[in-house]
Structures are given as structure tokens and as C-alpha cells.
Amino acid sequence: MVEENTNPNLKESSPKSPQGDSFSFPKKEKLKNKKVIEALFTEGKNLKQNPIKLIYLNTNFSDESKIKVAVVAPKKKFKKAVDRIHVKRLMREAYRLNKPLIFNNIEGNFAFIFLYLGNTMPSFNEVDKAMKLLLEAFLKKELHETKD
Fold it and tell me: Which residues form a coiled coil (predicted)?
């Protein structure tokens, strides 16, 4: 016999952010197009906040996403795949938590690549702090350029 949960205090759904579903990182926001990635490295603008570098470019996407993101951890500095994957997970999580800063304040479509430049394994707090500063610097720079 299966007992049903009759406690009204327990919620069955997972917690949602105040902005709805803005804290997710869906597949449509992941940058995978080779041509756009190449264009980022050749034509993109740079911002740097140790240990992360942001390369971005104003582009148009076929779908309705405003921003597409890729993260990179260099094989030269992190020989083990486990370490590279860990660094990329930290950067994706820091971006996911801080992306409402950007989505609510930009106009246009952008492609981002976050490059990890540090030599040592970072902590989440270090990556999160750098990500916040980078995204704020991006907003200041882009808002300044659109006003001119």
C-alpha cells in the first residue's frame, strides 16, 4: 500500500527564481556555431577581470535568444580533463547566477566567450566575483557605446 503525502506544507515543485526561469542556462543559449566563434576571436571586443577574459561580439541569431555563451578552460594550463571540466562548470554556474544583470539591461544580440586565464584551480567565490565584475563592465561599456 502506498501512502500519499497529505502534508500541505510540502511543495512538490522545485523553487523558481523571482524573474521566472531566468536562472536557467538552456541549450538555445549555448554558443556552438563555428563561424560565430571564429568571428569572435577575429572581430570580438575584449574585457578582462582576472582570472576571466570575456570576448564578445554583437551578432544576429536565427533563434530568438539574446545572448549565446561558450566557456573555455585551456588544455595548456589544465592537463587533466577533470580539471578543465570543473573550471568550465564553475564559470557556467557563475554566469547562470549573474545573467539577470545582463538580460534585463541590454539591447541587441551578443555572442560571449569566457576564457579562464588563471594557472591554478579557482574557488567558486573567485570565479563568481570576477564574473560579476566582468558583466558589470560589459554593461557599462555597451550602454556607453549605444548612447554615443
Answer: none
